[in-house]
Write a structure and sequence with these properties.
The chain has 253 residues and is α/β, with parallel strands linked by helices. It has one domain: 2-enoyl-CoA Hydratase, Chain A, domain 1. The chain is 47% helix and 15% strand. The strands form two sheets. It has a six-stranded mixed sheet with strand order 1-2-3-4-6-9, with helices on both faces. It has a three-stranded mixed sheet with strand order 5-7-8. Helix 1 links the parallel strand 2 and strand 3. The two termini are 35 Å apart.
Length: 253
């Protein structure tokens, strides 16, 4: 496991905590691989009844570490980009355990799109959600173009994914993809409370009911692959190259 990820099993719940606060939990290839391993290894373990993903206090994740992400880009349109990120998304798509997110702060890019693979989302009043792919000349990822309109409706999804408009915690609660808004610093305790509630329910009935509610994994992975192919093409577009240059120029300034 990476030093930027802490995985603990508490009773019947596996808690996956992002710990890279100096970079606002920006996700590296190593972190993606570690998250995938934590999710995948729980699938065949009957002792693990629930999964929690947390960013810890004050932040969820700023999304991809852009410098690391650009190194993991593709050189041709036939190869999926960001293979470690895609592997993580496949792990989410094939996950069969109830998945809870604890969001206390910013959730950017994949930090937001991964939430639509979750079954229950707890956010603090300080949480914000944004998918600024468009501002970098890119397109949605993580099957978000399938899941987000299904969850919050086309119009809200268009504003979020195409226009890049952020949502506050209350906006997200109103839209329906955040279950509960709690005080800053209380997301982890609330997520664990929800996990205990789920773990107390009959395991087989929970698993079957969850499967009925979710889209088939093959539908999700098909869209993940489609988005990934288009994302890779966009990474090499004139728009995206100009947008990334402008971004890093501002960052250095």
């Amino acid at each position: 496991m990476t030093g930027h990820l802490i995985v603990t099993d508490e009773d019947a719940t596996r808690v996956i905590t992002l710990r890279r606060p100096e970079k606002k939990n920006a996700l590296t290839r190593e972190m993606y691989r570690a998250m995938s391993a934590a999710i995948d290894s729980a699938q065949a373990d009957p002792a693990i009844r629930c999964l929690v993903i947390s960013g810890g206090p004050g932040v969820f994740t700023a999304g991809n570490d852009l410098e690391d992400f650009l190194k993991d880009g593709t050189t041709n349109t036939d190869t999926p980009r960001a293979s470690d990120a895609v592997t993580f998304l496949y792990s989410l798509a094939h996950n069969t355990k109830p998945l809870i997110a604890a969001v206390d702060g910013i959730a950017i890019g994949i930090g937001t799109t991964m939430l639509f693979h979750c079954d229950y989302v707890v956010a603090s009043s300080a949480a914000t959600f944004s998918t600024p792919f468009i501002h970098l000349g890119l397109v949605p990822e993580g099957a978000s173009s399938l899941l987000i309109p299904r969850s919050i409706g086309h119009q809200r999804a268009f504003a979020m994914l195409v226009m890049g408009r952020p949502l506050s915690a209350e906006d997200a609660h109103t839209a329906g993809f955040v279950n509960a808004v709690v005080a800053h610093g209380h997301t982890d305790s609330e997520a664990r409370k929800v996990a205990r509630e789920i773990c107390a329910l009959p395991a087989e009935a929970v698993a079957i009911s969850r499967k009925l509610l979710k889209l088939p994994p093959e539908d999700l992975t098909r869209r993940i692959d489609q988005e990934s192919h288009l994302f890779g093409e966009r990474m090499r577009s004139t728009e995206a190259i100009a947008a990334f240059k402008a971004f890093f120029s501002r960052k250095r300034g």
